[in-house]
Amino acid sequence: MARWKSFWVWLALVASLGLGWAQRLRAVFGLFEGNASGSGTISPHFYELRIEPGGSRGQLLFGLSSNQGDVEPYGTDLAYDTRTKFLFLIGGGPTPTTWYGSVYGLDVWRSLVSISLLPRIGARRLAVWDSFLLVTRTREPYLTAYKITYQEATQSVRLDSAWSVTHPLLRGIPEGIVLIRDTAYLSISARPSDNQADSLVVAINLRSRSVLRAWEVYRRPEEIFRIGNFLYVSCPSDPPDNWRIVRIDPQTITVQRINTGYRRECAPTGIATDVVRQRDSLIFWDQFDSVRVMNTSTMQVAPAAFRGFGFRAPGLNGYSLFWAGDMIFFGLTNRRDTSLLIIYDPPYIPTPPHLDTAFIRNGEGGGIDVPSLRRLIYVEDDTTRQGPSQSLAVASQDSRLRAWVAPGTEWLSWESPVALTELRLYDLQGRLLRQWGGGPLACYVGDLSSGCYLLWGRSIRGEILTTRFWKE
How far is CA 434 from the centre of its chain? Predict the structure, then answer.
């Protein structure tokens, strides 16, 4: 049981802290909900699991900040653009009626400082299509497309409103979005005026910007998954009703509903399918904190828990799930702290419980005020950025800020392309370890343990630069 005790384990990025020139990388990025308690507002935390080309893995958890201050608490969605290599994310409330729903951009391979792009627009979900960022919103128009433009001079992006779709069937808040070529499928969950449950899935042609078809599914549809030739819609309904999963044939009006026999008492992301491999399975948390599996071919829920996985730790409940090839992520929470467990799908590790300790915090000792894991996405991409005039190889963090501890020494050195007026040193749990002015280009770190650290700097122009380094 020692594995389940409260602790943080961080796997450092040993192989290559920078990207060098173009490489093929795999990563899982995620948002942990922040907090808005009486003790003050805490921004969402950003999670990264990066898999280097050689197979080494490194993990990071860090509080998000933007170039205009803190990111809105909670955070609801992420989307990645393969052209610009930017990760877009939403800060906003856990329900459609709280906070403001702002959109931020993160140069995710190079920086940990997000850029405020679309403040207070009521953003709810994100998807990238062609050169546009699609944003569903908590108010009309419920779907807006923003043109993504990469700006070479500032190494940033700009979002310009391009067009919106309005239609009588787009009558409420889209809680789910999935793209199939030029068609977006949106689940209309509730009407913002009174939170009255809705029950539609709407198909929109993104080129003609017209509604193609709509399906009546079940109350409060949320996540949408594509498996094979069908769409599967998660419909938690209202308590004490059971969780429904609805299968849609996009080519017809055919709808098939299945009562799972269980209630949903987790996050909307407490249901998942494999986003890397084609499988005929959906997994989800039940109200007993066990993970169930539904065969999408037979539309049957297995009587036994998935891989025998159940969790009975005091005060922790199943909250979110994510499945990416051989990795399955289990998010648990007590609404104050989060435990994230990663298991490897057999046969990669032959004996149960296939556990890769990422970080586990069971609420002991006061916690960190990060209540739950909201959402994860999987990205597999190279590091070549497509600029307007040419393909730009992202030359790692070194072109912005470089930091290192020479072997056999106890001093941190760094180089910056601009003069820095303030420097900070953090560990990967976000704790501030050092803070000083931009004078000497060296800092004693002999009292720090081996591991990966973050150097943060502010330039004379107010620009924020970040980089990671490894200390032996």
Answer: 29
